[in-house]
Amino acid sequence: MTKEAKDRFMFALGALVMTSFFIILGLLIFVPMPENNKDVLYLIIGALIGFAGSVVNYFYGSSKGSADKNEMIKGKQNE
What we know:
Elements: H1 3-30, H2 38-60, H3 62-78
């Protein structure tokens, strides 16, 4: 997989997770929650919050810096 394809995939996956997070958050605010499935809904929301946090950490945290450093090292080795 080329770097451009990997970057596009990561951006698309991140956008999907963040869009899902905000849609679910909006539904929680504006739509009444069913009593029967309350626990399952809380589980899904918790997982989505974890995924959203992972996306933010990847793009703005130490993982992004580490990935940039690795690309810089590869560029220096190719010179």
